[in-house]
Amino acid sequence: MKQSVKMIAGNWKMHGLGASLVEVDELAASLAAEPTEHRVIICPPATLIERLSGKAAGSAVEIGGQDCHEQVSGAFTGSISAGMLVDAGAGLVIVGHSERREGFGETDALVAAKAEAALSAGLEPIVCVGESLAQREAGNAVSVVTAQVKASTPESGPGRRFAVAYEPIWAIGTGLTPTVEQIAEVHLAIRTALVERFGEFGGAVPILYGGSVKPSNAAEILSTPEVGGALVGGASLKAADFLGIIRAA
Fold this sequence. Notes:
By secondary structure, the protein is an alpha/beta fold. It has a single domain (7-14, 24-248), classed as TIM Barrel (Alpha-Beta Barrel). Helices cover 43% and strands 15% of the residues.
């Protein structure tokens, strides 16, 4: 399915202090001067969400979180609930990023629970999936990713807005990027899995690509069949680079 309106989401990861907000000022000003039909999202560290949402109010920039707890509240020191993200001004949240799955042992079931918590709080989850280099070299990329899609997406998804982001783990922050053919193969498999799981609704869920997306390769990636946007890491930290990707969509 070709989606004319793309989701271009920037994941700042553990980068950004108050001084970084000038990048959002520049981004918002550029989008006001030259509007885009695409959705533009920044997911900063939790410490910046409230300040950033204030700056972005009335602009084309949407704000998201990078993770949320699966519970509404409780004795979970250091965790942030979906409701807290909403209260701070976020409208979306990334769940199941490979850095959470690998570094914090998050399972498909936990990711699905976080996605459900996000939906219940009124957030739009971006559910991440992706294979390791060993899994790809073993020829298991499609089977691994489609299994993650089926087990990590929210059961209550139909009729509620969420997205899936395909990020091959071996391409994140490495400068390596799959071929367009490899991206197309996995995105088609994800689409098939979504339709099998959710029926007609699964045909409209945006599927973002992430993994070393930059201005120089964005146009080719974003024109690939079933690519409904991009989840951008390092290139989203500077407004000029991020704008280059947005303009390429």
